[in-house]
Amino acid sequence: AFGMVSMAGFSLDYANASNQRAKLQAIADGAVMAGVRHFRLGTASESVVRETVSGFVQASADKVIGTVTVEPMADAKARTVSATLTANIPTYLIHIIGKQYSSVSVKASA
Hints:
single chain
């Protein structure tokens, strides 16, 4: 019986993490597009682009369950923007065996 409950818990937590990863990827894609728009318009420095990416992520972070961090990168010469987003997603049933969070990371670049 414990094995069946464990498998059900793992399946539920895996499905939740996958769903949150998809939401996180959509946020990352939108954030780098917002940042690269500044380069295309010629209106911003690398620091402004990084701030734009971080601001977009923070404004959208409520769509993801858990704490979201962002590592934005901007290259004015190449006019490229990238970001790595990481979220610690709380587990529903696996926390019984000591795993409180599942870490999910995504990357986007434009």
